[in-house]
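ok trying again, last paste got cut off:
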Amino acid sequence: MQPVPPSDILTTSRVRALLRGWMTAAEDPVVAHDAVLRLTYGVTLAVAALALLARLAGMVIPTWLLVALAGTLLLATRVQQLLLRRRKYVRGMPLLHLNLSLLLLSVGIAYTGGLRSPFVWTYAIPVAIEGVLRGGPWGIIGATASTMYLVGATFAATSGLAGRPFPPEPGLSAFLISYVGMFYVAAFIASSLREQVRDIFALARTDPLTGLANRYALRLSLEREVARARRYGLECALIVVEIDQFKRFNDRHGHLHGDDVLRRVAATLRGSCRAADLPARFGGDEFVVVLPQTGKGEATRVAERIRGDMEEFTLLRGFGLTVSVGVAAFPDDGLSGRDLLGAADTAMYAAKSGGGNAVAVAAGTHQAHDALQ
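nice, full thing came through this time. structure:
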């Protein structure tokens, strides 16, 4: 058996990597579906506006039909969003939403001529959305479903089921083939772009120096965990970490060495946290950790582990930096992310004012706890 040339191996591996990335499904189907629903609002209003412009240009499109189709889809989208907020996601939701969207599009396309409708291209919109947000398999599903709905809309248009009949004309099969090809090309391109879109979202939530979550990602995570704790009567906690005398270290060793220390401190912080925790860089030499479903006692133990790991790490590397740590917990120290951050920050400065290299816990506010009750 002849060995495969290196160039062929490289080509084959690249093709396999491309197909693997293209066929990858959404990491979190709930997040993906929520993104689809949010996009549905804008797309529905845009298509409805185009249809109104076409009506003003002389195309026969009943206004009541436009309002009914757009209103039905927007109402269904809103109901699904409310279900997601109540954590009632059902696996069949994406397929139901896709079919409802295509069905409503098909009614409008049937009324405007089937394959001769100027709105056939709108089938490619849900195909592209599914491909980008859910991955290659959903792009293929969307393209296949769009083909079936287009055939049904064309039959309804030519048979008179959607009002006045549109007599069939020679050459319509060529239009069908070209549209079907467009659907599958849109699915492939959208699915291929998905990896780039995912990278962009990751960059938007990542601190470029340390690789930790950035301030934007921290705010989203903190708001989400506080809202979940309020809704289900859970606990959550927050830890603020600041390097002691870091300005003096920068002045003595330079900012390049300071950046290297920040990266190493971030790596140590990541290793000291639990899998469910979110460590983030708040700014400068200050870091924050969000601890879901965690009480103040457990958060304090995590904070002490962070402080000890930092001290050991820096001593082993010969520059002896320490950290001051503040701890706050919901609901004792606040009922909002902003309140928790302020309480943890105050506790951290109390630790720093006592000489640093210490953990301080927020005193707690009975008013906040009572308000929750």
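cool. Strands lie at 236-243, 278-283, 286-292, 323-330, 359-361. The longest helix spans residues 172-204.
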